[in-house]
Specification:
Number of strands: 5
Number of domains: 2
Strand order of the largest sheet: 1-2-5
Strand content: 15-25%
Distance between the termini: 49 Å
Helix content: 25-40%
Largest sheet: 3 strands, antiparallel
Structural class: alpha+beta
Number of helices: 4
Oligomer: single chain
């Protein structure tokens, strides 16, 4: 096991680390539909920025059950000095009002709130979303939110003009 394997092994244990390293070194898995979820452009952007994540709950016979989580954010800037005695839970904050981001289900029009359970399913085993990759993104996005990386400035090249969220311009 190389140095990166030793580092992540200290977080996730040797068995899970071996599985993750095998998964991440398999380009056929990483570059496949098993590593693809169709989201609106704005939701994809928020997922990439660490504002939301999908928490894998269980492996289903034809997919994976996930819970959508709006990730808590820290209110620190990159240059802030944080006392080592600071407890992470004392500095994490959800958006002020649940549903304040006004993201809605395209079919029902209901607000998508923290904790919404979604089944990601497929009729074809080869196209099911990878539970292990979802678990990895869940862990990494929570770590990013905790360290303040989710509050990094948006990519100036990203453009939402012309993008539609649930069929709205």
């Amino acid at each position: 096991m190389d140095a990166i394997g030793m580092i992540i092994g200290s977080f996730w244990g040797l068995e899970r680390t071996r599985r993750l390293l095998a998964l991440l070194s398999d380009d056929r898995e990483i570059e496949s539909v098993r590593n693809t979820i169709c989201l609106s452009p704005i939701l994809h952007h928020w997922w990439r920025m660490g504002y939301m994540a999908l928490e894998p709950l269980e492996k289903l016979s034809n997919g994976t059950r996930v819970r959508l989580r709006w990730l808590h954010q820290v209110r620190f800037s990159m240059g802030d000095k944080i006392p080592l005695s600071a407890g992470p839970s004392d500095h994490l904050h959800l958006p002020p009002v649940q549903g304040s981001l006004d993201v809605r289900d395209c079919r029902s029009g209901h607000l998508i709130l923290n904790g919404l359970v979604i089944d990601l399913t497929s009729d074809n085993l080869a196209t099911e979303v990878s539970y292990d990759l979802l678990q990895l993104q869940w862990d990494l996005l929570r770590m990013a939110a905790l360290c303040g990386a989710a509050n990094a400035p948006d990519d100036p090249d990203w453009n939402t003009r012309g993008s539609k969220v649930c069929g709205r311009a």
